[in-house]
Amino acid sequence: MGRVLWRSSMLVSVILVTVIFQLSIGRHEKVATPPPLPILPLPSYSQLKWQQREIIMFLHFGVNTFSDREWGSGHEKASIFNPSGLNASQWASVAAEAGISLMILTAKHHDGFCLWPSKYTPHSVISSPWKSGKGDVVQDFVNAATAQRIDVGIYLSPWDKHDPRYGHDVPYNEYYLAQLQELLNKYQNIREIWFDGAKDPKAQNVSYYFSDWFSMVKELQSSINIFSDSGPDVRWVGDETGTAGNTCWSTINRTSLSIGNPDITEYLNTGDPRGTDWLPAECDVSIREGWFWHKSESPKKLSELLDIYYNSVGKNCVLLLNVPPNTTGLISDTDAHRLKEFRSAINTIFHHNLAESCSIKVSSLRGGKEGVFGPENMLDSDHLWSYWAPMEDGGKKEHWIEIRSRDGNLRFNVIRIQEAIGFGQRIKEHEIYVDGKVIINATTVGYKRLHRLLQDVEHAHVVTIRIINARGVPLISSIGLHFDPFWHSRLTVPRK
Ligand code: FUL
Q1: Ligand 1 centroid vs 323 CA: distance in angstroms?
Q2: Where in the sequence is the signal peptide annotated (predicted)?
């Protein structure tokens, strides 16, 4: 009762203050209604940039490429690292053609071999025959990516099976920190750093000084995103299949997370609507079965990559797709070709938005018809700061968007909804109706939610999106009705 009274008196005072304000600025001057208050937690500038990338590329490369293994023993001879035609520009061209804006390289994997000439260990390119020990893969990678205007990231495995300091807390942490400083001082503008929680349970015990590592990273490069099971900027999604939860919050409680803890994978997969930290999920998966290149493996089919896309990017995550260079030091033609097909399929699906030729009605408008929060904002190319905002309602009313076809002939099989996450992730539950019949009953939306329908919708008149539960008024930055021709053919063409 007290709460209801408090709410009504708040509403009355908001209306009063608004009226007084309008009177005080005079009748002829128009000022815009300000945006609504955000709902915390919010993404940082770097997290927002990361989210908009949608697909990023992982490159697993190192001694495993030559030993045909996934996890090296740590006893590999540096002499096996000898790519006959390494050309990082080819990696960057493949990425650029696939519309990728960030590439992450395994500077050191669990085997401990370093792809750059580290002064803290001889177990690196220095001791390899490649370029007579004078090469630096990380430098080549950074140069090539930069030339294509692609950003770079680095993976530095905490688990090190080679270094004798591993197993001794202080010496190993000193070594690890020294390498972090070496990398982040030498190679500038690193946008993501990957701290992998993987480790054989039988491996030696060592405490990683994460707080020291993270502080050092932020000290050296301020616009970097730190990835680990527990962030602090990007979290692991909890599996390596490229699949986020059907419910996927970018919010979570960091205090409930720890790195390398197998018991938290489900929590990582779904996030937490009550989470106090903005920590969006990244879905890492390889284009092939393994993370490293193996002659015996081939890339996934286009239909599998599209499934992954819908299950990651389509569920509010960023897809980190691994494309491993081969023993020559190049991305194999088969993989490059598949990646190109993948990008072109995504472009084909989302290039045309049927909603653009429809009339859009909404349940209410913040600031009324004169305001700047109209439904047209959901059809422009700004998917963050231009959005439809309904009237504030104290959380009581239902909000809806009605997409009405002008000729009653809508044909689509994908529905896209995007929230203006700059104001916090809000939607808890939504439903979609086609001509009055419910076809989707789902939970979160976030930066992007894609519903790929089991059956094509044909000859539809009206599509209604109802937001039935949210952490505040929903703010929708974009909507789309699309037709995915690959999905359709997947149902009819038998899988090879
Ligand atoms: C895992 C590692 O063990 C794999 O080798 C790979 O690097 C993958 C991305 O993370 O945890």
Answers
A1: 13
A2: 1-26
Is the C-beta atom of 229 inside 6 A of ligand 1? Answer: no
Q: How far is the CA of 71 from the centre of ligand 1 (A)?
A: 8
- Architecture of the CATH domain 354-482: Sandwich (2.60)
Residue nearest to atom 7 of ligand 1 (CA): 291
CA distance 245 to 239: 10
Task: Record the pTM.
Answer: 0.94
Q: What does 430-480 look like in DSSP terms, one character per residue?
A: EEEEETTEEEEEE---TT-EEEEEEEEEEEE-EEEEEEEEESSS--EEEEE
Specify whether the backbone of 446 is left (phi greater than 0), alpha (psi in -120 to 50) or beta: left
**Is the CB of 203 within 6 Å of ligand 1?**
no
User: 357-381: per-residue pLDDT in tens?
Assistant: 999 999 999 999 888 999 999 999 9
Q: Please indicate whether residue 282, judged by its CB atom, sits closer than 6 Å to ligand 1.
A: no
Q: Is the fold of 45-350 the same as that of 354-482?
A: no
Length of the chain: 496
Q: What separation in Å is there between the alpha carbon of 28 and the centre of ligand 1?
A: 63
Confidence of residue 16 (pLDDT cuts 50, 70, 90): low
CA angle 164/170/174 to nearest 5° reads 80
Query: From CA 213, how far away is CA 229, in angstroms rounded?
Result: 14
Q: What are the boundaries of each domain within the chain? A: 45-350, 354-482
Query: Is the minimum distance from the CB of 198 to ligand 1 under 6 angstroms?
Result: yes
Cα–Cα distance measured from residue 378 to residue 359, given in angstroms and rounded to the nearest whole number:
12
CB distance 307 to ligand 1 below 6 Å? no
Asked if 462 and 402 touch (Cβ cutoff 8 Å), the reply is yes
Tell me if 196 CB under 6 Å of ligand 1. yes
Atom 6 of ligand 1, nearest CA residue: 291
pLDDT tens track for 170-226: 999 999 999 999 999 999 999 999 999 999 999 999 999 999 999 999 999 999 999
Superfamily in which the 45-350 domain is placed by CATH? Glycosidases (3.20.20.80)
Please tell me the residue having the least CA distance from ligand 1 atom 4.
291
